[in-house]
Structures are given as C-alpha cells and as structure tokens.
Amino acid sequence: MLLTAAEPLGDSALLSRAADRLGIKAEAADAAESEGLVEFCVQVTCRHPLVRSAIYRSASPEQRREAHQALAEATDPELDPDRRAWHFAQAAPGPDEGVASELERCAERAQARGGLAAAAAFLERSAALTLEPGRRAARALAAARVMVQSGAFEAALRLLATAEAGPLDKLQRAWAELLRGQIAFASGRSSEASPLLLKAATSFEPLDVGLARQTYLEAFSAAQYAGRFGTGAGLREAAQAARAAPRPAQPPSAPDLLLDGLALLNTEGYTGAAPTLKRALSAFSSEQTSTEEALRWLGLASRTAVRLWDAEGWDVLTTRYVRLARETRRARRSADRTESTRRTACVRRRLRRCRCASRRGGPDHGGDGQRTPALHFASPRRIRRPGARAFRADQGQHERDGASPAASGTDPA
C-alpha cells in the first residue's frame, strides 16, 4: 500500500518490480484490493485521494524513504530518468550532491518542454539536498526564478530568503532584487514594485547592461500601473534613471528604443519623445522582433501607442500580441490579452468620437452639445469594471442604432 501511495502515476509494472525488491508478496495486494482500498489494473489507483494521503502520512520517514528507494531502483533510467531522480531525492536521508545535480538536469529537461511547475519542484528539492552554502544559495535562487514564472509567489519568496542567507555574488543579489520586484508587481502591489525594480536595474548596470535596461522597462510598466496611487519612485524617477543608464553596445533593439522613448516622454514631453517612440512601435509591429521580446513588451508598447493617440498602431500591436500569444499558447497571459483586446475596441470608438467632435466644435464637446467621453487610462484594478461597463454601453448603443460591432469595424473579440 505504501508503494502505491508513493508512486502517484500508479504504474503497475513499476510497482510490481519495487514490491519484489522489498520482498512483498502478491497476497498483500490481494488483501488491499479485497478491502476496497485500491484497484489493480494497468494503472493502480487508490479508492479515494484521501486514502493515498492517509497511507503516505501514516508511514514513518524511514518507511517512506525505503519505498522511494525501491521505486527509484525499479525505474528504468533510460525511459524515465526524471521520475527515477525524483524517487532517489525523496529517498535521500540528507544532503546528496549527486542527486541534487541530477535534479538540476531534470529541471532543464522540464523547462525545455514547458513544465515550469515540475522544473520548480526539481530545483527546490535540489537546493534542499545541497550542503555547500554557495551552491545551495545559487540553486535556491534558480528555483525562485522558475517559481516566479510558474506563479508560485509564496514559494518563490521562501526560496529567495534561503538564497539571500547564503553567499550570493553581486549579479545574484541583483537577480534577487529583480525577483522581489517582479513578485510585488505580479501580486498587484505596483507601488512597491517600481522602487524595487529601479534598485535592481541600478545593481545590474555595472554587471549586465542588457538586463539593466530590461529592468528599467519593467519599472516603467510598474509605475504606469501604480499611477497616482504610487509611492516612492514614479515615472519621472524611472525616466531620469533610465536616461543615465549605459547605452547598449549593439544597434538599439525594439525594447531599447521603447525605453529611450519613454525616458524622453517623461522628462522632455511628447515633442522630444515622439520620433523615438514611433520608431519603437514600428519595430514592435515588425516580424523582425523576436517572439519572446514581443510577448514580453507588446503590452507596454500598446499602452505607449495610446499615449501617442495612435489608434491604428495600438490595433496593430494588440492584434499581433493576441496572435503570438495564441500561437505559443501562453496561457498565463490570457487575462492580459482579453483585457487588452476589450480596451482596444472601447478606445477605438472613443477616438472616433473625439475626431468627430473636433470637426463639429472642439475636442471636448460634440455637435449635439453632449460632452464626449474622455480617454482615460489607469491601473487595471481601477479600470476593469468601468471599462467593462463602457464596453457594454457601447455595444448596446450599436444594437439600438441597428448596427453590430462587426459591421462598424470594431469587433470586440
């Protein structure tokens, strides 16, 4: 029963080989099946998940390690090296560098196939089995990075505390600062994220110019989301720091142009920033920008297009964002894509109304004397519900006028 509880996939052949190693006879399996606790077929399953949990938790640590050791030895190292390494890790009574190194290789394979949660679990266990302080801190930091990518922020913070307690070098400490800023931003604490990200960017400057400039862009994004509710470093502080940052060695990429343009926008205004920002948006619209860079920065680029009142550019950028995200199946960005597409439909209508109002009698009022809706951007937390109401109101107006959103050229999807 303990072997079945320790092997979640329920591979009957593997369990049979492990039972032989432990000298367990077939009668034990018959007794468990007759009691209705497990079912034996190609896959061995417990009657209820709580049965498996109860069996595993009721066993002593020594019994669990013995079961995992038998399962590891019975697992084919060629067919399933990752499962074999995991069982060896669970069987280890203490630090084991050989097992920890094998878990690192398992994490690399998991990341290559997109299994971020599995990679994070491998790296976390690898750090736990490492005795040497420097290597343990490095592995904990690597695990924290993957935890952030998988959305496990509490686990990432716990691993960061482990890493920071060890002898990290300057680059590793800068990474720890960056991860804390990213966790704050992703957790909705944008006002806390911007100062943390600026600090990380400053730490990266003498070590890695490319990472420093990317981190400044993240600080801009966090400051924009924080808006007037932000405390500490805001857009102007981020702009001043970015303008003082080292220049990239190679010709500027799309993110480099975007960073330079945003820094100019928040220090010199639209006149000085417009040419650089237009070059940046054009670069992001091009297929020459890599998919990885596009998925990471198209959200910020599309918001920048709105600040330039470039409705057509925003439409192009958000359309590309949705297409790339669907092609690469980045499920973690689905909420951003939906919100961005919804805002695109709303703002295109409002821009059209503003243009009509300008022709009829000024930018603030339409020809019928009614005030034109203002174009407003705030943090997603503040705009989500009002934006949804505005979208439904616009849709209802189309229906009352006898036109569908698709017919008007503003498909909300």
List the helices and strands and how they pair.
Blueprint: H1 2-6, H2 12-22, H3 26-34, E1 38-39, E2 45-46, H4 49-58, H5 61-74, H6 81-91, H7 97-112, H8 116-128, H9 133-150, H10 153-164, H11 170-186, H12 190-204, H13 209-226, H14 235-243, H15 254-265, H16 270-285, H17 291-307, H18 311-328, H19 334-361, H20 380-400
Antiparallel strand pairs: 1-2
The number of helical elements comes to 20
Distance between the termini: 52 Å
> Stretches where pLDDT falls below 50 for ≥5 residues?
330-337, 362-413
Q: What strand order characterises the main sheet? A: 1-2
Share of helical residues: over 70%
Total strands: the figure is 2
Biggest β-sheet description:
2 strands, antiparallel
Radius of gyration: 28 Å
- What class, by secondary structure content? mainly alpha
Apparent shape: elongated
The proportion of residues in beta strands is: under 5%
Give the rounded overall mean pLDDT: 79
The H/E string reads HHHEEHHHHHHHHHHHHHHHHH
Would you give an account of this structure?
By secondary structure, the protein is mainly α. Among the domains are: 1-75, no CATH class; 330-413, no CATH class. Helix content is 70%, strand content 1%. The protein is built from 20 helices and 2 strands. It has helices at 2-6, 12-22, 26-34, 49-58, 61-74, 81-91, 97-112, 116-128, 133-150, 153-164, 170-186, 190-204, 209-226, 235-243, 254-265, 270-285, 291-307, 311-328, 334-361, 380-400; strands at 38-39, 45-46. It has a two-stranded antiparallel ribbon. Strand 1 (38-39) and strand 2 form a beta hairpin. The longest helix has 28 residues, at 334-361. The two termini are 52 Å apart. The model is unreliable at 330-337 and 362-413 (pLDDT under 50).
